[in-house]
From TrEMBL:
GO terms for biological process: alanyl-tRNA aminoacylation. This is Alanine--tRNA ligase. InterPro entries: Ala-tRNA-synth_IIc_core, Ala-tRNA-synth_IIc_N, Ala-tRNA_ligase, DHHA1_dom, Thr/Ala-tRNA-synth_IIc_edit, Transl_B-barrel_sf, tRNA_SAD. One of its GO terms (cellular component) is cytoplasm. It is found in: Cytoplasm. Its EC number is 6.1.1.7. Residues 271-333 form a coiled coil. It comes from candidate division MSBL1 archaeon SCGC-AAA382A13. Gene3D superfamilies: 2.40.30.130, 3.10.310.40, 3.30.54.20, 6.10.250.550, Threonyl-trna Synthetase, Chain A, domain 2 (3.30.980.10). Residues 1-23 are annotated as: Disordered.
């Protein structure tokens, strides 16, 4: 199973719009009893339907967690009179929790229903939410109290934590953070969740409580990992952090100046990710005909062989370029105080054309070289020796004007210009145009 894909763009802090339809009048409904706080491991419950409109249902009590605090909502089913309805989304409006189901003609107001949570998903969220607090504690412990939560999003397979920090977090420091976070996990510390008077909470824990932002209300919910990290938080968490399992940071990136994004996983997703990596390593080892333990040596050997082969290829290309340049030089045309050489090749990339041009212009300082090649796309280069430049030659202009003939563009400096285009059939025309511009420059006629 894949870990969740990363989001590379920084999240703008904007006021989140409620998903609850604005025309709903919920003012007469009582506060929904939140079972997920009282009994976070409760998977099933019974409740009375207090209100229904369209595919939205309000119950007198619920174990379904509504979206909030970077944690997605629960899903699952509601059962009524032998029928089963999927719970697709859960949102909170004021003190009332709304459940969006997959039917507008299912449950009815006044009847009893049985709710069943998708426990696999909920438990993953609980582990990742608890892991977020553990990881943030490790970051602040090792990097300093200036580290502040900038954004967070929990997922089933991975979660992300954006934190403020003045520089990139090194690979060595990432490993230290992982080790400390997992050390805390292995200590299986108690995770206490309690409601406190705001002033008392701030006096006891300080304003670092508000890592996820200042929460409203005179009473706030505190999640306190024993002697490690305390935050004002409305999410669901494990009651002992040992349930989190192994924490692994799987990616990090700088999403904006002063903000580092860490993507991490905990529990079974870590094992699955490591197993995927192990399979890739084994497959690579088989391709390299070595063992997984020796793959680093095999890769280094292959890289060294590639470097050696590349050097040989470069030497051969250089020798070929020398031979081509020697053969071409006799085809140059004298014009005023310069020599002009214009040739078309059936193949060869820009690098090869430049290599030939360098040899020719180094051997003859009066030389102007206009070379072109192409099969599927057209390339053209213009190069000039030192004395040709003194005669007013501008290769950037030559390449630019010549490239128009092949329906492309180009430019460059006086000593080297390059161009390209899609019309290979007009390469001869482009070369002629290049020669024409070159002669005008050598004649002192730069006004067209």
């Amino acid at each position: 199973r894949r870990v969740a894909e990363l989001h590379s763009k920084p999240q703008k802090k904007t006021e989140k719009k409620s998903k609850v339809p604005t025309h709903f009048d919920l003012s007469e409904l009582p506060e929904t009893e939140l079972l997920f706080y009282k009994e976070p491991y409760k998977r099933e419950f019974t409740a009375d339907v207090l209100w229904k409109e369209g595919d939205y249902v309000v119950l007198d009590r619920t174990a379904f967690y509504p979206e909030g605090g970077g944690q997605p909502s629960d899903d699952g089913v509601l059962k009524s009179n032998g029928d089963k309805f999927e719970v697709l989304d859960v949102q909170k409006s004021g003190d009332v929790v709304l459940h969006k189901i997959d039917s507008e003609n299912g449950v009815r107001t006044g009847e009893k229903v049985k709710g069943e949570i998708n426990w696999e998903k909920r438990s993953a969220y609980m582990r990742h939410h608890t892991a977020t607090h553990i990881l943030l504690g490790a970051l602040r412990s090792l990097l300093g109290d200036h580290v502040w939560q900038h954004g967070v999003q929990k997922g089933e397979e991975s979660s992300r934590l954006d934190v403020s920090h003045h520089k990139r977090i090194s690979e060595e420091k990432i490993q230290e953070i992982e080790k400390l976070a997992n050390k805390i996990v292995f200590q299986d510390r108690k995770v206490n969740s309690l409601w406190m008077d705001r002033n008392e909470a701030e006096k006891k824990y300080g304003h670092s409580l508000y890592q996820g932002g200042v929460v409203p209300g005179r009473k706030i919910r505190i999640v306190d990992i024993e002697d490690w990290n305390a935050q004002a938080c409305s999410g669901t968490h494990c009651t002992h952090n040992g349930e989190v399992g192994l924490i692994k940071i799987i990616n990090r990136e700088r999403i904006q100046d002063g903000v580092e994004r860490l993507v991490f996983a905990s529990g079974l997703p870590v094992l699955e990710s490591l197993q995927e990596q192990e399979q890739r390593i084994k497959k690579s080892a088989e391709t390299l005909r070595t063992s997984p333990d020796e793959i680093d040596k095999a890769v280094q050997k292959l890289f060294d062989q590639w470097k050696s082969a590349k050097k040989e290829v470069d030497n051969l290309r250089s020798r070929v370029a020398d031979l081509k340049a020697e053969k071409l030089e006799k085809n140059s045309e004298s014009f005023n105080n310069i020599q002009i050489l214009a040739e078309k090749f059936e193949d060869g990339d820009s690098d090869e054309l430049i290599q030939i041009g360098e040899i020719l212009t180094n051997n003859n300082k009066n030389m102007v070289v206009i070379l072109a090649s192409g099969k599927t796309s057209a390339n053209i280069i213009a190069m000039a020796g030192e004395k040709a430049l003194e005669e007013g030659i501008n290769c950037g202009e030559i390449a630019s004007e010549a490239a128009k003939s092949i329906e492309g563009g180009g430019g460059g400096k006086p000593e080297l210009g390059q161009g390209g285009g899609g019309n290979v059939e007009k390469l001869e025309e482009a070369i002629k145009m290049g020669v024409k511009i070159c002669k005008k420059q050598a004649s002192g006629d730069n006004n067209g």
